[in-house]
Every structure is written in structure tokens, then in C-alpha cells.
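Summarise what follows for lecture notes:
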Amino acid sequence: MQTSLPSRLALACVALTLAACAQTPGNRQADEPPQLSKRGDIIAWNNASAFGPVPSHLASTGALRCAALDTDKVKYRPLGYHSAARGLDGLPLPGGGYYCVPRD
């Protein structure tokens, strides 16, 4: 089964969350956007602190993208957003990127 772009982006967000827990989104999105990078088998954001808060008008979209990662035991939510987040190819991702974390 092929996954959609939003699902792959959300997966990348979680990979970063697991790989770089010390970084968290900031209080505004950075001028330099985060970019997906590949480290071994993990695709992750290169800079979680580049994300800003999720705008209220994008909260439901972010929730849907992050929910694509849900398992029976772990449910995810968007913690950050960047409108110009870049993919592995360095190009801006349509609709931006979300930084997903496990719900409390």
C-alpha cells in the first residue's frame, strides 16, 4: 500500500521526535525552514526548533496528518508547523510541514 504525502510527512515528523527529543518548536517559525533529511533508515526534520506554533486555522489539518501515524498504543498530535518546510529534494512541501509528537 502506498502512503500519501501527508502521511509520509507526518511519519517524518515523528521520526524526528524520536531521534531528537531535545529540540522543540519555537514560538514562531524560523526564517530558515526545516528540511527533511535521511539518516540511515530514518527520515527526519533537520531542525525541530525551526517550527512555530500550529496556526488555529490549520489545527484540524495538522491533527489529521499526525493521526496518520496513530497505532493502537500511541496517538499523535501536531506540536509545530512551518509553512515553507522542505522535502528531501530541498523543495517546499505543498501545505507546509507538521512536527508531530505523542499525545500525553
